[in-house]
Amino acid sequence: MKRLDSVLKSLLMEGTVIPAHPLALDELRHFDEENQKLLTQYYIQSGAGGIAVAVHSTQFEIRLPKYNLFEKVLRVTADVIDGIKLDRPFVKIAGICGLSEQAVQEARIAVDYGYDMGLLSMGGLQDLSERQILERTEEVAKVIPVFGFYLQPSVGGRVFSYDFWSKFVEIDNVEAIKCASFNRYQTLDVVRAIANSSRRDQIALYTGNDDNIVQDLLSIYRFNVNGKDIEIEFRGGLLGHWAVWTHKAVGLLAKVKDYKDNPSYSKWRALQILSNQTTDANAALFDTANNFHGCIPGIHEVLRRQGLMKGIWCLNPDEVLSPGQYEEISRIYAAYPELNDDKFVAEFLKQNLMKI
After folding, report:
1. Closest CA to 201 of 228, 158, 227, 231
2. What pLDDT score was predicted for residue 124?
């Protein structure tokens, strides 16, 4: 059983920015290894504290035999990170999917390539009972530290009971949970389960609620547990949204931490404005008007505009921008110029002496 390094555990608990890594393809929809490496370098130089790869933003199709990219993507990303020899903590997270047999196998592959944690997807498990999903989690946790994942139903997840989460957080080697339920009530179930857990001080709560990023980071939850007030907060974020404008996301988390350490009305007001601007931007990127159909191409489109990707191609040719989504991305780009990190990217590309 692989355990999470204590330094990385401290990083997670302190809170950091973890982008969900996209997949770089060329015009023939073939894996573009050099472009993939460039993206990884961008996330590192942006100041992110980790990367999650082989997740939804990396496209689940990488696991299909006709593409056979799961292992290659893990290897390429790990090689870039290890080759840079960072002098700061950086957590490598591999997406893990499927029924128990597949999930355990993917966990083993991730360990072989030096990944620190597995982001355990709950997608595609509608036929399993909650008990069976807990057992699946226990099996994966015997191989790799688990980053739990509450995935919203509109993109293949399902709703879980409070009882499920109360048992989930007690599983040994579950170290963190990404809450991406996109629902306040369901988010509250996860937070309350952590508060009432014997492992509450060992579970790092991360937002995946792209519709509520800043508010999640600002939120403080208090519960009375056996006569004692217990407070739980989101530590950071593991987000597809943070696959773009990552340098500004690092600055955003720093602003939230600064506000919590030294609160003032002016800081609070600025963060409230930024919160709603971020949600509006996410609506364009994730294509909420069309039930998230264009969420991956939307991320690609921003990276394409910045010069970090050659195009917006996905393995599935039907996965394209929705009608009007291009214009919506242009709108939020013009409306909120302070959200993008175009200047940072331009300097990054210049320093890396690589045109893609």
Report:
1. 231
2. 82
